[in-house]
Amino acid sequence: MGIRYFCLTILSLLAVVLAAVALNEPLRLEFRGWMESRTRTVLAQAVGDLNGAGELVTVLKVKSLDTVALEIYRNDSENRPIRFKERVILDGSRDAAMKWKTDWTQLLLMDVDGEPGQEIIAPTYDLDYLPRMNIFKLDGQKGILQAIAPDSLKL
Question: Which one-letter DSSP state was computed for residue 82?
Fold first, then answer.
C-alpha cells in the first residue's frame, strides 16, 4: 500500500506542475525554450522595422527537431535584441533559400504591400520538398504577426 500512495502522490505532483506550466504563458515559453535549447539552430537573422514607426526588431529563422520557426525580438537603443516578442512556426519543416536581386537569402524583410512597415518573407520546403513562401505582416492593432497569402498581395 505504501508504494501505491507514493506513486499516486508523485503522479499528482507531476500533473499539478504540468498544469501550471500549460496555464502560465511566460512559464510555458521558458519551458519550451529549455526543452528545445539543445536542438535549436539559427539559420538566418534580419533587422528591420515591422510596424513603420521606427521600432527595430530582430527576426531569427530557427530550426528545431521538426520545425522551422520565426522568432521576433525587440531591440534596444543600440540595436541589440533584448526581449522576446513572438514565435511563429512556419508552414514547411525544411529550410529553403530564395534569390533576391543577386544574392541568395533564407530570410528577407521588405515592403511588399506598399503600407507602412516591412513584411517578413521566409521560404521553406514541406516534407515532399514542395516550396512554401511564408509571408507575414505585423497587425498594428493586435501587435501580432499574421500570415499573408501570396495570392492576396497586390503586386
Answer: E
pTM as predicted: 0.67
Provide the residue-wise pLDDT of the chain in tens; the chain has 155 residues: 688 888 899 999 999 988 888 888 788 777 777 765 567 788 999 998 888 878 888 899 999 878 889 998 888 777 776 777 888 888 878 888 888 888 898 999 988 888 888 899 999 888 888 888 889 988 766 777 888 866 555 54
CATH topology of domain 40-152: Lipocalin (2.40.128)
How far, in Å, CA of 49 to CA of 58, rounded?
Answer: 9
What span, in angstroms and rounded, lies between the C-alpha atoms of 14 and 130?
Answer: 41
Distances (CA, A) of 89 to 46, 63, 114, 116, 120: 17, 10, 25, 24, 13
Domain boundaries, the chain: 2-33, 40-152
Give CA–CA dist 108/99, Å, rounded: 10
Distances, alpha carbon 98 to alpha carbons 70, 108, 113, 131, in Å: 16, 9, 19, 10
